[in-house]
Design brief:
single chain; alpha+beta; Alpha-Beta Plaits; 3-stranded antiparallel beta sheet; 19% strand; disordered C terminus
């Protein structure tokens, strides 16, 4: 028997005694299951997040490969629901893991009732805003007020202002908007008092055309009706318009001009593009017809003479005698 064999016996006996003792038994019966629960819960949570991102990417890929110019309401709502399901699933998973760990540690649930009540009351007062945000987010999603990709205008009660942009993410707690300038707004759902969805089902482009009061409105109407017929045949506007633009007539009368309104039903979120293109067609048609819009007239600006000069004094105080 070598020296190594002699040293191995005491080490093996100590190792065996460790696992037979209280600490080793606790590690095997309780510590190892707790570690496995935590690892399993973390893996499941990561799988849920991965699945949600995969579903969202698949929806985006299907939309990009399709011929549709805008997202359907079912697609926008489906992406929002996928995000919420992921959030709720992870929350439920966390509760299950905590309950299982409590059971493994043999912690009596009855003894936790009083501390849980105190902690619950404290969290209830401190987390009112979070609960309000989550309840508001639940109703936003279930009522389909808006979804991913919608162009919305949200009135926020905290600053009594409006945030306008495209919805990039909707969760139970917050809504994220991307403005036209590229800014990202993160708004708690509980602070939203009014939501205006400008891209749900269909949209409307409104064009007000200022016409001088001296112009012949009959001729103006004829030209604008030609514009509405041309817009339907336009290669760019054909796919964005749901029907032919309508001429509503005189909307308002001002001192130097009258405003003639034209409206057009468009695909959701495309009203601004259609409005810009229609204005180009209107300006070009009026120019060809020799009709000058109120915005094209150049005002005459006269120089104001300073009162300190001789001519200025004559204009304000009468002729100045020269000796």
């Amino acid at each position: 028997m070598t020296t190594t064999d002699i040293l191995a016996f005491p080490f093996a006996e100590k190792w065996h005694a460790f696992w037979q003792g209280h600490i080793g038994e606790w590690v095997i019966t309780r510590g190892l299951p707790i570690v496995l629960l935590l690892i399993g819960g973390l893996l499941v949570a990561r799988f849920v997040n991965w699945s949600t991102r995969a579903i969202t990417r698949r929806i985006d890929a299907d939309f990009q490969q399709s011929d549709a110019l805008v997202r359907s309401e079912s697609i926008k709502h489906g992406q929002a629901v996928a995000s919420v399901i992921s959030y709720v699933t992870i929350a439920i998973l966390g509760v299950i893991v905590v309950v299982q760990i409590t059971s493994i540690l043999a912690i009596p649930v009855g003894s936790l009732v009083a501390p849980a009540a105190v902690i619950g009351a404290a969290l209830g007062f401190g987390a009112q805003r979070v609960v309000q945000d989550m309840l508001a987010g639940f109703f936003i999603i279930t009522e389909k007020q808006y979804g991913f990709g919608d162009l919305v205008s949200l009135t926020v009660t905290a600053i009594a202002a409006e945030a306008t942009g495209t919805v990039e993410d909707v969760t139970l707690r917050v809504t994220k908007l991307r403005s036209s300038e590229g800014e990202l707004y993160t708004i708690p759902n509980g602070l939203i008092v009014k939501s205006v969805n400008m891209s749900k089902d269909w949209a409307r482009a409104v064009i007000d055309i200022p016409i001088p009061t001296a112009a012949d409105l009959g001729k103006v109407y004829t030209v604008l009706h030609e514009v509405t017929d041309t817009a339907v045949k336009d290669a760019y506007l054909h796919d964005l318009l749901l029907d032919a633009p309508q001429l509503m007539g005189v909307e308002s009368i001002e001192l130097d001009n009258v405003n003639v309104r034209m409206v057009a039903r468009t695909l959701p979120g495309k009203q601004f593009e259609v409005g810009r293109q229609l204005r180009v067609l209107v300006i070009a048609a009026l120019a060809r017809a020799g009709i000058v819009t109120a915005g094209d007239s150049t005002p005459l600006v006269e120089a104001i003479v300073h009162p300190a000069t001789t001519s200025g004094a004559e204009g304000t105080q009468g002729p100045v005698s020269r000796k």
